[in-house]
Amino acid sequence: MFRWDWGLSTVIQENEPVVKIMATRLPVSMRLNIISLIVAAPIGFVLGIIAALQKNRPADHIISTSVMIFISIPSFVFITFLLLIFAYGNRWLPSQWPGSGMPLSYRIKAYIIPVGALSFGTIAGFARYTRAELTEIMSSEFLLLARTKGLTKRQTVIRHALRNSMVPIVPMIIGQFIGILSGSMILESIYGIPGIGSLFIKALSSKDYNVVMVDMAIFTTIGLFAGLLVDLSYGIVDPRIRMGA
Known about the structure:
Elements: H1 18-53, H2 58-70, H3 75-89, H4 104-109, H5 112-138, H6 141-148, H7 153-191, H8 196-206, H9 209-237
Helix pairs in contact: 1-2, 1-5, 1-7, 1-9, 2-5, 3-5, 3-7, 5-7, 7-8, 7-9, 8-9
């Protein structure tokens, strides 16, 4: 019979069940990554739409150049610059993750730096992908047919172009969530966030193998479920792809 028993921690919290340790840290990582995705997705989509509609114009060049820069820089580099500017330089934001006893306003401020660092690359990814898809749709023949039938440019973009470009983009949100989750591992260690990412680094360096194993199992399980959701979401977004259609 299968038992969800991963043993006890030998170093980090000695003789404490590793499942119990994970239960206290997993919500912190999930909350941080979900907030980052909620922030990044709409901004990335809007920038991608603007770049596509303003193709080969100054707005497109500015957005495309910024995307190339931001998508190439890891999140732990972003958080270093944010800490230097907003935490250590101007002291506007906390330089480390606050404890549970700190005021609510201070704990809310603590999310700004890590969420910002995690969001930059995701925003760039969404913007680049949205621009590419929407640009391709805008040059398709069925949009030209819609214009010849009397629809305005705004109507063709809203009714047809955006709707069709979202088919491959919407499942990308789930894939980006996995990217954020894996990228937050080093970031959590830098900012002192008590999540499963920083725990993995700490357990690996201290050779607490039971904690390492359950941490890897959680990351793997999330990745497998995300892959399944991506496949299922294609059929939800586009009825033509549904099984048995």
